Amino acid sequence: MNLKTKITLALLTMLLLLLGVSAFTLYSLNRLDRSARNVLQDNLYSVELGQQMLRALDRLQAQEAPLDTQAKHRFEQLLAREAGNVTEPGEQQVVDSLFSELTATERYLASDTTAPQLWNAHMGQLRQLTYRMVNLNTQALTRKNEAANRLATEQSGYVLALLTFAVLTCLLFVLSVPEAAVSGLRKLSASIENATHQDYSNSIPVESHDEFGGVARAFNRLLVQLQDYRTSTLAQLLAERNRMVSLVNNLDEGLLLVDENRRLILANPVAQQLLALPPEQLLNRPAEEIAQQNDLFRELLRHLDTPAAQRPTEAAPVLTLAQHDEEAYYRVSVNDVVSFNEALDKMEFVGSILTLRNVSEYKKLDQAKSNFLATVSHELKTPLSSINFSLKLLQNGKVGPVNEEQQNILVTIKQENQRLLRLVGELIDVSRLESGNIQLNFQAARVTEVVQFAAATIQLQLQPKQLTLDLQVADTLPPVRADIEKTTWVLLNLLANAIRYSPEQAQIHIRAALTAEAQPQVCISVQDHGPGIAPQYQEKIFQRFVQIPNQSGYKGGSGLGLSIAREFIGSQGGQLWVESELGSGSTFSFTLPLARPD
């Protein structure tokens, strides 16, 4: 029998018991009511009639003559009513005797005899018979009252017994049915609690075939499947763990993992070798504690503490370490690890990964490339300068007359030679920047003078396209701390690019203003009305040897100008960036710090 049927039967039984007790109680009350009503209607009525008859006899006996006919008539009416209400054994004989005695009394009254003794004898006989009739009904009242009391007691006992049975039965259901419903839940809850602690051996005993029996069988099957799944999952996890451990340990890069509490929880052999610390002095220790004992880890922790927004996205920092009596170069990379927390329904920071990649070979190749560029640039600059001097002599006609066609050829050769000289100069600047040998001559400079000098220098380049300059530089701007020569070179480079890409008869805007920052700087911008730069190229144009063709297919120079310009501005403590939209021109801006007052 299932649990639903048990509960339904228990409720139906309780309902039937309630109905049975109520019905029997109503039956007993009705029976007692009928018994009491019969007593009141029959015997009590006869007693009242007898009392009235006695009062009528008192009036008759009080007046012998003349006869009280009204009292006699009243007695006859009451006796007639009593004759119609005979209910007890012997009561009919008494009523008949009263009628006989009443008839004898009437004969006596009809005769001429007036003996008082005889009249009193008739009255006494009528009174005695009336008392007898009253006594019969009084005794009947007492007897029926006792019978009613016995019936009430008996019915009360039956009702109490039935009520006791109903209460006991209901208590039995109240104690057994909820227990039957809850015991299975307690067993299920205990088994689930054990399962949450990865104990799948505590199955539920199947003791019935009801719903809980079905649930117990299904849950036991689930435990078996969970145990099998856990076993297989653990095997897979162990295999994956061993594979990941093997990969991490065999990496040729140093790998460190710091959790959200800033404890070092992983360090592969390469990282341990670089830090020169055994695993027991690294793992599960606070990062600050390790940093106090190890200079390299202190430097790594400094990169880790750098906010993510301020970490370099392209050129990660390179550390120089001494290995085997020679310098080794390792590129530091910091990556924050976030994970989705299902309980909180949000992403959470769980740690950071630091990697040390050996870039010594690339560094050597880069150094070789830089040396090659420096050597080639210096070697080319001398013959190019000599060629340029010879071209000037030919143009001046000091070595002989030159016709018009030869003059045009010399102009073209000189322009190309100048372009080669500029390229060689840029290559020399690049080699100096890479070697760190760039020399900066910082001094207080007025922005208006730098802008005006650059504008005057570029005037001849504006004429072929009939371009104009719009200068918006206030004389009240404070001096900046900068290398005037290199800052002017940057501004001329930006103006040359603006001239190159501007349409004919356009205007180029040069603006300078203070920035709204906690530490203000002067921002200088060059805006053109050229074709603009697509968003995906706006950062690439500052990389070396990168050229972005415009819609007309024109390519710029060597692709080094903007790269060198950013290096020059960055080395002076400023920034260089571009804001552009296709078809709306471009605005190149750079900042310079203010000069400190003496």
From TrEMBL:
Glycoprotein recorded as keyword: no
Which superkingdom, per the lineage?
Bacteria
One example GO MF annotation: kinase activity
**SUPFAM superfamilies the record matches:** ATPase domain of HSP90 chaperone/DNA topoisomerase II/histidine kinase, HAMP domain-like, Homodimeric domain of signal transducing histidine kinase, PYP-like sensor domain (PAS domain)
Q: Does the keyword Metal-binding apply?
A: no
* Membrane spanning residue stretches: 158-177
Q: InterPro entries in the record, alphabetically?
A: BphY/WalK/GraS-like, HAMP_dom, HATPase_C_sf, HATPase_dom, His_kinase_dom, HisK_dim/P_dom, HisK_dim/P_sf, PAS
Q: What is its EC number?
A: 2.7.13.3
Q: Which reaction does it catalyse?
A: ATP + protein L-histidine = ADP + protein N-phospho-L-histidine
Residue ranges of the PAS domain?
Answer: 240-285
Q: How does it sit in the membrane?
A: Multi-pass membrane protein
Q: Which CDD domains match?
A: HAMP, HisKA, PAS
HAMP domain ranges (all copies): 179-231
Xref: SMART domains: HAMP, HATPase_c, HisKA, PAS
Location relative to the cell: Membrane
Residues in a coiled coil are: none
Keywords recorded for this protein, A-Z: ATP-binding, Kinase, Membrane, Nucleotide-binding, Phosphoprotein, Transferase, Transmembrane, Transmembrane helix, Two-component regulatory system
The residues the entry assigns to the signal sequence are none
Q: Which PANTHER family match?
A: SENSOR HISTIDINE KINASE GLRK, TWO-COMPONENT HISTIDINE KINASE
Q: What is this protein called?
A: histidine kinase
User: What species is this protein from?
Assistant: Hymenobacter glacieicola
